[in-house]
TrEMBL record:
This is Kynurenine aminotransferase 1. Pfam families: Aminotran_1_2. One of its GO terms (biological process) is kynurenine metabolic process. It comes from Gadus morhua (Atlantic cod). GO terms for molecular function: cysteine-S-conjugate beta-lyase activity; kynurenine-oxoglutarate transaminase activity; pyridoxal phosphate binding. One of its GO terms (cellular component) is mitochondrion. It comes from the Eukaryota. InterPro entries: Aminotransferase_I/II_large (IPR004839), Kynurenine-oxoglutarate_AT (IPR051326), PyrdxlP-dep_Trfase (IPR015424), PyrdxlP-dep_Trfase_major (IPR015421), PyrdxlP-dep_Trfase_small (IPR015422). Its cofactor is pyridoxal 5'-phosphate. Residues 46-422 form the Aminotransferase class I/classII large domain. The gene is kyat1. Belongs to the class-I pyridoxal-phosphate-dependent aminotransferase family.
Length: 434
């Protein structure tokens, strides 16, 4: 019987455990793309353009703020306010109030979390009830799907579709307004958007956000806006917060990440910002699960934001400098992928670039299951045979729609130039062998 474990007992008789151990809410979500592919990349010591993290150090001012916090006395190592250290919620309210154009109450409208992951988890647990429908725009950051499921909600998928033509920019991935409207029903509780998008790099324009906002208002639906890459836009693309559109502050939970903001993904400090009528329910989940987040990390992030707040829009701002640095890395990676015949879609924002693999051939051997989608097989082959790690794009789709994007894989370009050079060497060698 599946799940049966026989253990020898002290008295010689085996104890049979045959009851199901896992809760049903875990069914179908036990596989995780990051666990699988990060391990595979490590096993093969591949050049890692898979998992999204910078392989260079965070800025000095943040490292110094962290050291200062850690050595700042005993209280830096004790519990702090459950919903966020006062210094962090204060600066988040100040900065985001300025960006959203709405006064934000630090103690009411902000919740500090363990990374954006926990902000998302609290949001779904707090707002999605059994049977509620949640619209998820594909491609989506993979954790939305299991989190909606764990909350008892039903995922309703709405694909972004590539416009015809050469399709070289993430801006060519668009929503059909009529199709989106058709997804809203009396059961729709929330819609999740992610701008700049992981994995395409799409940065939603105001007109696109307005279509979503109008539908949210019409159907009294909550918008969960994942904006972890908000400071990273390229070629003049502008990040717009949906919460800043008329009538949207009241119904939007905006999610952010210090890991992405300060190139320090190991910090795991994130937040959810929105009206207290929504955030108070996230706080209920938080106080009964995590209670509070590491104090010193919060103090360091608060200081990092204070430094940036005082120089916002100035050339010395990290938020100005990073997109310039990443534009160079993005272009470098695009050129590198083209060497081997992959066709990259140039992202307008974020950490990632998707590339069309349909014009390259590869022989996936017996070590790679032929039952897997093409993009999974390609990435496994790339890791095992070429020593380069990426992520299959169908992982960012529902099982129903994943088949339509099997020709795409995702690469991360927020890496040291030496890492990108190593990827380029692999591509050149591969091209020369063709
Ligand atoms: N949302 C998106 C779109 C992401 O790419 C990630 C991965 N960093 C997260 C949320 C989770 O962020 P964090 O590392 O702050 O938990
Ligand atoms: N957000 C990162 C990515 O998309 C990594 C997430 C993770 O490793 N769990 O690559």
């Amino acid at each position: 019987m599946e799940g049966t474990i026989c253990m020898p007992s002290r008295y010689g008789r085996p104890i049979i455990m045959s009851r199901q151990m896992h809760a049903r809410r875990l069914e179908g979500i036990d596989k995780n793309i990051w666990v699988e592919f990060t391990q595979l990349a490590a096993d093969y010591q591949a050049v890692n353009l898979g998992q999204g993290f910078p392989d260079f150090a965070p800025p000095k001012f943040l490292q110094e703020a962290f050291c200062k916090a850690v050595s700042g006395g005993g209280l830096m190592h004790q519990y702090t306010r459950a919903f966020g250290h006062p210094s962090l919620v204060t600066i988040l309210a100040q900065l985001f109030g300025r960006l959203v154009g709405h006064e934000i109450q630090p103690l009411e409208d902000v919740l500090v979390t363990i990374g954006a992951y926990q902000a998302l988890f609290c949001t779904f647990q707090a707002l999605v009830d059994e049977g509620d429908e949640v619209i998820i725009i594909e491609p989506f950051f993979d954790c939305y799907q299991p989190m909606v499921k764990m909350a008892g909600g039903k995922q309703v998928y709405m694909p972004l579709r590539p416009r015809g033509g050469s399709n070289l920019s993430s801006g060519d991935w668009v929503l059909c307004a009529e199709e989106l409207a058709s997804k809203f029903t009396a059961k729709t509780k929330a819609i999740v958007i992610n701008t700049p998008n992981n994995p395409t790099g799409k940065v939603y324009k105001t007109e696109e956000l307005q279509v979503i906002a109008d539908l949210c208002i019409k159907h009294d639906v909550v918008c969960i806006s994942d904006e972890v890459y908000e400071w990273l836009t390229y070629d003049g693309a502008k990040h717009v917060k949906i919460a800043s559109l008329a009538g949207m502050w009241e119904r939007t939970v905006t999610i952010g990440s210090a890991g992405k903001t300060f190139s320090a993904t190991g910090l795991k400090v994130g937040w959810a910002i929105g009206p207290s009528r929504l955030i108070k329910h996230l706080k209920t989940v938080h106080q009964n699960s995590i209670y509070h987040c590491p104090t010193a990390a919060q103090v360091a992030v608060a200081e990092g934001f204070q430094t940036e707040y005082d120089r916002l829009g100035h050339p010395e701002s990290y938020f100005q400098q990073l997109p310039t640095l990443f534009t160079h890395k993005r272009n470098k990676l695009a050129a590198c992928l083209e060497i081997a015949g992959l066709r990259p879609t140039l992202p307008e924002g974020g950490y990632f670039m998707i590339a069309d693999i349909s014009s390259v051939s590869f022989d996936s051997d017996d070590s790679i299951s032929q039952d897997e989608p093409l993009d999974y097989r390609f990435v496994k082959w790339l890791i095992k045979k070429k020593g380069l790690a990426a992520i299959p794009v169908s992982a960012f789709y529902s099982p129903e729609h994943g088949k339509e994007v099997q020709n795409y894989v995702r690469f991360c370009f927020t890496k040291e130039d030496s890492t990108l050079n190593a990827a380029e060497d692999i591509m050149k060698k591969w091209a020369s062998e063709k």
